[in-house]
Amino acid sequence: MRWKALGIATAALLAAAALPLAAVADNEPPSQIQPTTTTPGGGTAAVRPHLGAFGGSVVSASSSSVSVAVLVTGPHDTYLEGQTVDVAIASSTKIVYGKGQSSIAGGDLVRIRAVGVSSSSTTLTARQIHVDCNCHIAAGTLGSVGSSSFAVNVSRTGPFDTVLKGNAVTFQVNGSTVFVQGRSTTGGSISDLKTGEKVAVIFSSSGFFRDGRFNWQTATFTATHVRYAGNLQPAPTNP
């Protein structure tokens, strides 16, 4: 019953989101793009610029630009992977917000299609930005608890996080992590967690679960919300 109540209380917080990498598509490589081409009549015509594609975690954002730590790229933009790039937001940039999103903030996951992407370019301008919450869900039984991290034997996950089910997963905490006991709204701390109790975690990931190269065992998961059952009660005994 306590596990059911914990699940119901946590459900209101859940907004599991993932970044479908199929959308991080690419067109022809930069080496095949020329500024102009000769027409049959001897004139010149502009050739559409290379439209680079990449996705990553937002480092910072303003109304005119976004800084992104690149985690995955299109096949012709792999030199961006692992870099932090600044991308200008123009008046023509189309911004698409995922469920629960209405702005771009640090930690969000973004998919970007931009012009100016080349191995020698430092000026990128977004044509389209798709914004998703970097939030995932896992629930299960607490294992070890440290001062800045805790482990969960995961039995339930969000729809995009099923690779974690049945595994012992470590979650990091920071100054922004919120701890809440049961169905209350009273804040707690990592020191309140007890090995063996039920817990539900909303967390961010250092990588994309739907990236075929994603390895959950080497990724970093940071808890944003932790809802725990509270002090364990002794089993009832007959008088």
CATH architecture of the largest domain: Beta Barrel
How much of the sequence lies in strands comes to 35-45%
Give the count of helical stretches: 1
Number of E strands: 13
Derived structural class: mainly beta
Please, what is the oligomeric state? single chain
Strands of the widest sheet, in order across it, are 10-9-8-12-13-11
Can you tell me the overall shape? Answer: elongated
The top-level CATH class of the largest domain is Mainly Beta
Description:
This protein is elongated. It has two domains: 2-16 and 135-228, OB fold (Dihydrolipoamide Acetyltransferase, E2P); 52-132, OB fold (Dihydrolipoamide Acetyltransferase, E2P), CATH 2.40.50. The model is unreliable at 7-36 and 232-239 (pLDDT under 50). The two termini are 23 Å apart. It is 4% helix and 41% strand. The protein has a six-stranded mixed β-sheet with strand order 10-9-8-12-13-11. Strands 3-4-5-7-6 form a five-stranded mixed beta barrel. The chain is mainly beta and 239 residues long. The longest helix has 10 residues, at 2-11. It is built from one helix and 13 strands, in the order H-E-E-E-E-E-E-E-E-E-E-E-E-E.
Write the layout of secondary structure elements.
Layout (H helix, E strand, L loop, with lengths): L1 H10 L24 E3 L5 E3 L5 E10 L3 E9 L10 E14 L11 E7 L8 E9 L3 E10 L3 E9 L10 E5 L5 E4 L16 E8 L15 E8 L11
Parallel strand pairs: 5-7, 11-13
Antiparallel strand pairs: 1-2, 3-4, 3-6, 4-5, 6-7, 8-9, 8-12, 9-10, 12-13
